[in-house]
Amino acid sequence: MASLDWFRQQLTAALHQERFWQTEFDALTAKCRALQNAKASAAQIYADLMNANTYSPFADQHNWHFEVANANCFYAHCCANVRLYESRVQWAYAELQGHKYVHLHQAKVLWVIAKLQEYRANVRRAEEVFATAERRERENQQAQAQQQQPTRPSNGITMAKVRAFREQAAESFKNYTAMTTFPDPPAEPCKRVACHIATRALKACPCNIKKCFAGLRVRDLKAERGKWHPDRFSKCQGGKTAVVEMQTKAQEIFTVIGDLYDEAVARNQNW
């Protein structure tokens, strides 16, 4: 569909054509009316000459028959011109009606269609603006509601907790003999029945420990497994009881890392 400006140009052109043919029609009508008057005058002259030729006793002396013949020719000429201009008037009238009721109507219809499409486009833009405003208002309300809610501490294992645990472990592993506290992994409630009934030294169950080392590659898991080997904690500070407790906790982590390492190796072999 063309633009609205194009339809306006078409409508202007159609109106211009209508005015042109209306002017042409009016001019031809006036010319035809003048010729009809001339025809009537010629007919009157011819009738007067015929009467003069019939009733005048001096008709033969005055050569009235030549005057009558000339008047008859003039009358025939007027009749021919009248018929010609009557045909031109009919043609101009047909052209006027064609441009007036076809092209003008078509241009007006197309202009109305384009105007309707413009209104629909404006409505769609208004709906989009309104939807955007509603979405922003809804987002602002949600943000305000979240700000008004009191912040509650998270009981789950987050990336921040995992990062803090790994940093603490890396710092402790720089000197095993100087360790006085064990870097416990973060814990969260677990739904597995086996984790509930099992007796362990760590608060974190195997599922929690897996989350702390998930996503590591085979090489990284192998290095971590070596760092958490129980024998590395045999010379820690705190006495025998503390050493045994640290080794027990390290064994639980070592076992989980070993399982993760075996699973990673198996996946690589399958690939």
Which keywords apply here?
7 helices, rod-shaped, single chain, mainly alpha, 0% strand
The number of helical runs is: 7
Radius of gyration: 56 Å
Q: Please write the string of helix (H) and strand (E) elements.
A: HHHHHHH
Q: Kindly name the structural category.
A: mainly alpha
State the major sheet: none
Q: Tell me, rounded to a whole number, the average pLDDT.
A: 76
Terminal residue distance: 57 Å
Residue fraction in strands = under 5%
Region (Disordered): 133-157
Topology (SSEs and partners):
Blueprint: H1 4-55, H2 64-148, H3 159-172, H4 193-197, H5 206-213, H6 218-227, H7 239-270
Helix pairs in contact: 1-2, 5-7, 6-7
Region (Disordered): 133-157
Describe the structure.
The chain is mostly helical and 271 residues long. The chain has 7 helices and no strands. The longest helix is centred in the middle third of the chain and has 85 residues, at 64-148. The model has no long low-confidence stretch (mean pLDDT 76).
Q: In a few lines, what is going on in this structure?
A:
Helix content is about 75%, strand content about 0%. With about 270 residues, the chain is mainly alpha-helical. The two termini are about 55 Å apart.
